[in-house]
Write a structure and sequence with these properties.
357 residues, 36 strands, six-stranded parallel sheet, 22% strand, mainly beta, 17-stranded parallel sheet, elongated, disordered C terminus
C-alpha cells in the first residue's frame, strides 16, 4: 500500500483506503482526505488547511486536529485513542461521537455537548466557550471546565474522575452532583456548600469568599482552603489527606482533629493547638501567631516554626523530619525531645553554638 499527496489531496493505492500505519500530515499542504478512510494507527492533522473530514472516518489510534481549520466533525466518527481539537475552529460536536481516551477541547468555540457523546478517559474544556451541559450527564473520567463562562451545572451530573471548575462564575452546586475524583472550586463565586457533602478525593476551595463549611463534611483526600475568610472548622470534619489553611482567618482547631497528610497553618492567627491533635505528616506554622505547642506533640514529618513567637519547646516533642526555628527565640532543645532530621537555626545560630540539647 502506498499513500501519496497529489494536488493537495491524500491518495492511497488501494480502494479500501485502509492505512495500517500512523499518518503524520502536520503542516502539510493537504486540504482533502479520501472518503471511507480507515487509519489503524494515529492520524495527525494539526495546523493543516483541511476544513472537513471524510464520512465514515475511523481512526483506531489518536486523531490530532489541534490548530486546524476544522469546524465540524462527520457523523459516526470513531476515535480509538485521544481526540485533540485544542485551538481548532470546531464549533460543534456530532451526535454519536465515540472517543476511546480523552477529548481535548481547550480554547475552542464549543458552547454545548451532545447528549450521546461517549468519552472514556476525560474531557478538557478549559478556556472554551462552553455555556451549557445536558442534564444527567455522565463523564467517565475527569472533566475540566476551568476558565470558562459556565455559570451552572446540570442536575444529575456524574463525574467519575476529577471535576475542575477553577475560575468560573459558578455560584452553587446541584444537589445531585457525584464526583469520584478531585473537586476544584477555587476562584469561583461559590459561598455555600450542600449539607452532608462528601468528596472522595482532593477538595480545592482556594480564594473563595466562603466563611464556613457544612457540618460533617467528609473529604477523602486533601482539603485546601488557602486565602479564604474561614474562621473555624466544622463539627465532624473528616480529612483523608492534607489540610491547608494558609492565609485563612482560623484562630483555633477543633478537638480530636486527625490530619492524615500535612497540616499547614502558616500566616494564620492561630495561637495554640489542641492537645488531642493527631498528625500523620508535617506541620507548618511559619509566620503564624502560634505562641505555645501542646505537650506530647508528635509530628510525623517536618515542623516549621520560622518567624513565630515560640520561645520554648515541649519536653517530649517528637519530630520525624526537619525542625525549622529561624526567627524564633528558642535557645534550647529539651533533653527529652527527639528530632530525627536536621535542625535549622538561622543565620544567627548554628547547631554548635547557642542552641543546646
Amino acid at each position: 500500500m502506498k499513500a501519496t499527496i497529489e494536488n493537495n489531496k491524500l491518495k492511497i493505492s488501494e480502494e479500501l483506503f485502509d492505512l495500517s500505519m500512523t499518518v503524520d500530515l502536520r503542516h502539510s499542504p493537504v486540504t482533502e482526505l479520501p472518503e471511507n478512510l480507515k487509519v489503524n494507527g494515529s492520524l495527525y492533522l494539526s495546523d493543516t488547511q483541511i476544513t472537513q473530514l471524510p464520512k465514515h472516518l475511523k481512526v483506531l489510534g489518536d486523531l490530532d486536529l489541534s490548530g486546524s481549520q476544522i469546524t465540524t466533525l462527520p457523523d459516526g466518527l470513531h476515535v480509538g485513542g485521544y481526540l485533540n481539537l485544542r485551538d481548532s475552529k470546531i464549533i460543534e460536536l456530532p451526535e454519536g461521537l465515540v472517543v476511546g481516551e480523552w477529548l481535548d477541547l481547550r480554547r475552542t468555540a464549543i458552547t454545548y455537548l451532545p447528549k450521546s457523546l461517549s468519552v472514556k478517559t476525560g474531557i478538557d474544556l478549559s478556556g472554551s466557550q462552553i455555556m451549557e451541559l445536558p442534564d444527567n450527564l455522565t463523564i467517565e473520567g475527569y472533566f475540566d471546565l476551568s476558565c470558562t463562562r459556565l455559570s451552572r451545572l446540570p442536575e444529575g451530573l456524574t463525574v467519575k474522575g476529577g471535576l475542575y471548575l477553577n475560575s468560573t462564575p459558578i455560584t452553587e452546586l446541584p444537589k445531585r452532583l457525584t464526583v469520584q475524583g478531585d473537586l476544584d472550586l477555587s476562584n469561583t463565586l461559590i459561598t455555600k456548600l450542600p449539607d452532608g457533602m462528601t468528596v472522595k478525593s482532593g477538595f480545592f476551595l482556594k480564594n473563595l469568599q466562603m466563611t464556613n463549611l457544612p457540618e460533617f463534611l467528609s473529604v477523602g483526600g486533601g482539603l485546601y482552603l488557602n486565602n479564604t475568610p474561614i474562621t473555624e472548622l466544622p463539627k465532624g470534619l473528616k480529612v483523608g489527606g492534607d489540610l491547608d489553611l494558609r492565609g485563612t482567618k482560623i484562630t483555633q482547631l477543633p478537638e480530636e482533629l486527625i490530619v492524615h497528610g500535612y497540616l499547614n497553618l502558616s500566616s494564620t492567627a492561630i495561637t495554640c493547638l489542641p492537645n488531642s491533635l493527631k498528625l500523620h505528616a508535617g506541620l507548618y506554622l511559619n509566620d503564624s501567631q502560634i505562641k505555645i505547642l501542646p505537650d506530647h506533640l508528635k509530628v510525623n514529618g517536618m515542623l516549621d516554626l520560622r518567624n513565630t513567637n515560640i520561645a520554648t519547646l515541649p519536653n517530649d516533642l517528637k519530630v520525624a523530619g526537619d525542625l525549622f526555628l529561624t526567627g524564633t527565640s528558642v535557645t534550647t532543645i529539651p533533653a527529652g525531645a527527639l528530632v530525627k532530621g536536621r535542625i535549622e537555626l538561622g543565620a544567627e545560630q548554628d547547631e554548635n553554638s547557642s542552641l543546646s540539647m
